[in-house]
Amino acid sequence: MIKAILLFIILGAGLFVGTEYSGQQGYVLISIAHKTIEMSVTTLVIVFIALLAIIFVFEYVVKKLLSTTFNTWNWFSVRKMRRSRRLTNEGIIKLLEGDYKQAEKKVIRWAKHHDNPLLCYLIAAEAAENIGDRKKRDRYLALASEQNASTLAVALTRARQLFNEGELEQSMNVLQSLQADHPNNVILLNLLKRIYAQLGKWQSLVELLPKLHRYTNLPEQEEQQLTVQAHQGLIAQVATRHNMVEDLWDHWGQIPRKAQKEPAIAVCMAKHILEINNGQPAFDFMTKQLKKAPNSELYILLADLDEAHIKPALTLLLKQLGRDDNNAEAHSAAARLYSKQQKWSEAQHHLERALSLRSSVSDYALLAQVLEKQNKGQAAKEVANKALSLLP
């Protein structure tokens, strides 16, 4: 539209000038060195227009030739890229089907013509890994690392392959080198979770748990299991390294309150304290935990206290049974403590009550011993047979 308007303006101006100055062509003299050129203004305008026309025609021809050449070249390039994409797609399907040789062959054949060669080399590396050809795998990973924006994808692939080979330390080192730039990457976090658990890096696992909770779809049950496993491992490490109750107490104070409420973690702590000192420290810890919440396993562990704490432990158990007479583990623990005091009838009463609530091979075995101590041989034999029948 603008060009048409300009054309009409020029034509109008030309008509006006032509009409106004008709018969007055003017005179033009061009002098270059020793040569002169004379012409009228009209002739100059015609020559100028002719030169512009020649220039425009030349420009059009050149553009046409270049466009044809480019289109021809582009056609071949697009054809190669499309073929590379098709082969790559077929290679991915072969990889999923387990035909690793065909997968490698298809993706690597036209990888240089693919618009994202990184994808081709990574798939080829996976295929070579599954075939067991580590030399090819490493070569493909090296080619992948030469591509743009390949650091994360190549490193994660490498770390996962090292993990599958059992090279856990090396895999961990690769992943940790990525943490600064990619702290919330889901694949990185999940892989570190598995490595820390297998290597017993419990402190690292504890520090990783908040990110796993926030950035991954970690099931609640698995999160609880990992929390228990990590803190149990840390408690065991502290107990083994120092073998001092004070160090265990210090460590317990550093455990988050939510984790302290986990029964399995409290039981682990109690067991290690008992191994070091089965007297007052163990009694104090278990009493404190049982006041917060009942714990069946802690009731059983009360029976492992030294002789000086049998009476206070029995007092604690009987008080609990006064509140809840259906606590089988408390009855079982009381029976064991009475057995240590050789109070056989009391032990028998609590064992029978515990067994009425649930079956237990160990309780049946202890009941047989208690009956034997009371010269009840036939009853002891029947109970012993009952215990044997429960064995797998």
Q: Can you give a write-up of this model?
A:
The chain has 392 residues and is mainly alpha-helical. It has a domain of 116 residues: Tetratricopeptide repeat domain (Serine Threonine Protein Phosphatase 5, Tetratricopeptide repeat), CATH 1.25.40.10. It is 78% helix and 3% strand. It contains 20 helices and two strands. It has a two-stranded antiparallel sheet. β1 and β2 form a beta hairpin. α10 runs parallel beside α13. It is elongated, with a radius of gyration of 44 Å.
Features of the shown structure:
392 residues; two-stranded antiparallel ribbon; 20 helices; 2 strands; elongated; transmembrane helix; cell membrane; TPR-like_helical_dom_sf; cell inner membrane
- Report the oligomer: single chain
The CATH superfamily of the domain at 277-392 bears the name: Tetratricopeptide repeat domain
Largest sheet: 2 strands, antiparallel
> Count of DSSP helices?
20
Mean pLDDT: 86
Number of DSSP-assigned strands:
2
Main location: membrane
Domain HemY N-terminal: 26-130
GO cellular component, one term: plasma membrane
Subcellular location: Cell inner membrane
